[in-house]
């Protein structure tokens, strides 16, 4: 047996197309409605986490993006760690495993490959990484769905980041949350043509946190009740659209659900606004893009969705990325050239300077100043968590972050 | 008998606190829910209309703000004129009146004392003026509630501008609309302390027209059904708040209903946005103003409401106008000095430069550039339509607009 056990994993970000908003239990992160998301590719957005446990450690410790965080007893991180230790203990008891890893303290080191300030939910990939990483360290045989019950307690949407592709979080009915868990609806290979253009929007004001916001909605919005009633049918429709690779239906449902979610935010007292004038302009562009596309008998070719912030995620099929990026950059000029990771532009194509689609009403939005959309990220549907090699560990054999160790030198 | 009959009237604008949104009959302007409004004072906002009818006239004609408009057969204006002629005909038949005014053509001349571009619903006061003016010309004994059935067919909210004070529009259940009419809930004297600060917000984009917008909402928003269910209880609560002069309840209901209306707009496919970033900032200011007021045990002291546009109407009691204007001008500096019609500032008071309320969180909004709020109008609850003297006629004895006659000279 080694002096310590260790694993390093990466986990993806997911962006819901049927949104989670409203908790029936705050403590257990039990939702008032089911949700469904697309897992985005880790080449663009992911969390990397190393967990190391050792009998030498004096306490559980955590470094996030290079800075040590206090693990508050009974807090979300502590809850996830304790739940994972319980799973390990049960494993030790059941298989008479002589290694008392469940009794050791754990050091965790984690960072995101995307800027936290971008407003892209990092808690989902973060808590998924924590749970998946500990499951790997503890050599647990549990399925991702079983682990999702624990990730959910860190951050609701984290339960969906334990899978690649298309992921449902079934709300469950049990009071203890034992049936409120994630499952994969379809893998990233089933419909690998699904791409996403993320428009990172500047936000001058600090928004309302999701946790306090959704609680206020449940307490004060009469419309949330109607939303709760309509989501089950939407979940079924969305699962069907994904199974059939029906982008037209997928797009319509995605946009309707995003708007429905922001509508209940607005119906909250005091109202919650996440979208701003830039978001509204992006909405107008996508609808105009689709209007022209429908005229051409091509159906909906783009679908925006907004989480609890002003950023737009525009889903589309790979073949339409070029037109969409060109359109967005026409209205929202960028300081930096477009990072064309997946090579959709070729030859003399200049994103933002190519013609708009025929019959596109250019007056649907004004042209904004550079910086109104701070950046564009082209990504696609991606796989679930990955385990990295030992060389990629973020911790030294002594259990301290390598970055800190380097700084000391 | 004179060669012509003539009358000149002024009618007020009204701003709903329980909003009208959604038609169950487009042709008859029958709403899917009841609504309730405050009539604003005509000293600040009104429509003036002269109607003249004469056997010499060759056709019905209309001049709006100095420009002749075509009266489309079967259109809204024509409908109102024809309905009024029918009422006159019934009167002639019943009372054996020998003057066949119902057979004469009518010339109408109308203007608003406020800029049309300000986005303040001018159709309400406009159609109310048309109907009230013809009723006066035709010497009809009908009540305002009876006339409201006709004004409603011009523009739904016009039916509420036939009364001063606080006005309900009961939705009715009959298919022919015969019970969908306005009634006065309380006169302007009942609660004359109710003031309004209108923040005229610049809007770069042209919004969706109310008529097409509300139809799209009825057809596509699942949440509108819940709105329709909840309005009757809100109407009752609002009537109670007005009867009791309970500003705290009035304010809470007003804001909730405005947000609820904009929520169903957002839930529409494609979504309808009327509020912009300036509107959102005004919402944040009013909520912060109320938060501090509630801390001081003074309850809600301000209530915003937004119609189908970005302008905020902030209702408050007269004693709070000063603090509200000062707050708005602190964040939204004005090119012109505040027009202090009702003398709420005195001595060295400078609106926008006085202290904000104690404990007010100044960071709740940023300070905007001059022009983001284009103007502030201080007004108050006001009376219903008024009949003016003959000297104030907008038409010459020949039935032509005086302004045009003057231009010819």
From TrEMBL, chains A, B:
Q: Which InterPro entries match?
A: GHMP_kinase_C_sf, Mev_decarb, Mev_diP_decarb, MVD-like_N, Mvd1_C, Ribosomal_Su5_D2-typ_SF, Ribsml_uS5_D2-typ_fold_subgr
Substrates-to-products reaction catalysed: (R)-5-diphosphomevalonate + ATP = isopentenyl diphosphate + ADP + phosphate + CO2
Q: What class of enzyme is it?
A: lyase
Instruction: Report keywords, A-Z.
Output: ATP-binding, Lipid biosynthesis, Lipid metabolism, Lyase, Nucleotide-binding, Steroid biosynthesis, Steroid metabolism, Sterol biosynthesis, Sterol metabolism
- Involved pathway(s): Isoprenoid biosynthesis; isopentenyl diphosphate biosynthesis via mevalonate pathway; isopentenyl diphosphate from (R)-mevalonate: step 3/3
Q: Which residues form the Mvd1 C-terminal domain?
A: 196-388
Q: Please state the Enzyme Commission number of this protein.
A: 4.1.1.33
Q: A Gene Ontology MF term for this entry?
A: diphosphomevalonate decarboxylase activity
Write down what this protein is called.
Diphosphomevalonate decarboxylase
Q: What is the lineage of its organism?
A: Eukaryota, Fungi, Dikarya, Basidiomycota, Agaricomycotina
């Amino acid at each position: 047996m080694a002096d310590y056990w260790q694993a390093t994993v990466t986990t993806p970000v997911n962006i819901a197309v049927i949104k989670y908003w409203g908790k029936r239990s705050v403590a257990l992160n039990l939702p008032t409605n089911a949700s469904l998301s697309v897992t985005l590719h880790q080449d663009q957005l992911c969390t990397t986490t190393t967990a190391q446990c050792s009998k030498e450690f004096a306490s559980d410790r955590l470094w996030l993006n290079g800075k040590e965080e206090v693990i508050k007893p009974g807090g979300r991180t502590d809850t996830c760690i304790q739940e994972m230790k319980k799973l390990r203990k049960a494993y030790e008891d059941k298989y008479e495993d002589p290694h008392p890893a469940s009794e050791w303290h754990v050091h965790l080191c984690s960072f995101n490959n995307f800027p936290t300030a971008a407003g892209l939910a990092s808690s989902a990939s973060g808590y998924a990484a924590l749970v998946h990483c500990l499951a790997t360290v503890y050599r647990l045989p549990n399925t991702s769905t079983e682990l999702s019950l624990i990730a959910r307690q860190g951050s609701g949407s984290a339960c969906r980041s334990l899978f690649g592709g298309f992921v449902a979080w079934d709300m469950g009915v049990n009071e203890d949350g034992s049936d409120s868990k994630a499952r994969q609806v379809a893998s990233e290979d089933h419909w690998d043509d699904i791409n996403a253009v993320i428009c990172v929007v500047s936000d001058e004001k600090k928004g309302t946190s999701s946790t306090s916001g959704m609680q206020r909605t449940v307490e004060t919005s009469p419309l949330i009740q109607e939303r709760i009633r309509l989501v089950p049918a939407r979940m079924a429709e969305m699962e069907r659209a994904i199974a059939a690779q029906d982008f037209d239906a997928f797009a319509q449902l995605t946009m309707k659900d995003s708007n429905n979610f922001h509508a209940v935010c607005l119906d909250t007292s005091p109202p919650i606004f996440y979208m701003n004038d830039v978001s509204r302009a992006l909405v107008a562009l996508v609808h105009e893009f689709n209007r022209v596309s429908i005229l051409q008998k091509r159906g909906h070719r783009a679908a925006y969705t907004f989480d609890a912030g002003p950023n737009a995620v525009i889903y589309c099929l790979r073949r339409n990325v070029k037109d969409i990026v060109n359109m967005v950059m026409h209205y929202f000029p960028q300081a930096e050239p477009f990072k064309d990771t997946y090579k959709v532009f070729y030859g003399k194509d200049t994103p933002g300077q190519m013609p708009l689609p025929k019959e596109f009403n250019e007056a649907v939005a004004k042209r904004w100043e550079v910086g109104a959309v701070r950046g564009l990220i082209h990504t696609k549907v991606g796989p679930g968590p990955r385990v990295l090699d030992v060389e990629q560990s973020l911790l030294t054999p002594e259990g301290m972050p390598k970055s800190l160790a380097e700084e000391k030198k």
